[in-house]
Amino acid sequence: xxxxxxxxxxxxxxxxxxxxxxxxxxxxxxxxxxxxxxxxxxxxxxxxxxxxxxxxxxxxxxxxxxxxxxxxxxxxxxxxxxxxxxxxxxxxxxxxxxxxxxxxxxxxxxxxxxxxxxxxxxxxxxxxxxxxxxxxxxxxxxxxx
Length: 145
Prior knowledge:
By secondary structure, this protein is mostly helical. The protein has helices at residues 11-26, 32-44, 48-54, 76-79, 86-114, 122-138. The protein is elongated, with a radius of gyration of 29 Å.
């Protein structure tokens, strides 16, 4: 924590250690009763060495927040065997359907009221659908290795 444990602790030092203790409690390393005992020790400490004693048995860094080695990284799409994940495909097609439904309803209302029956919504549905199908069929660029 500090180079000189005899150095006086500031309020900011105490607040930082108290926040770390609350985080350890939230992660289940200490219970609420122990948290309260340690917080009393934090706010009664005078030196940085006293603060260090309160947290001596707790890790300074959560091991789950450390960066993952590059050899262990894999995207969900690659783990599923290529293409987008099922959730991503479902969301993409749902968005496609919702937008095209809105376009179709607007077209239908204007066609009925004005008598112009040109199906302009096909220019929205067609290219977008073709791109979605191609993406689903051939996968993304990152999947090809």
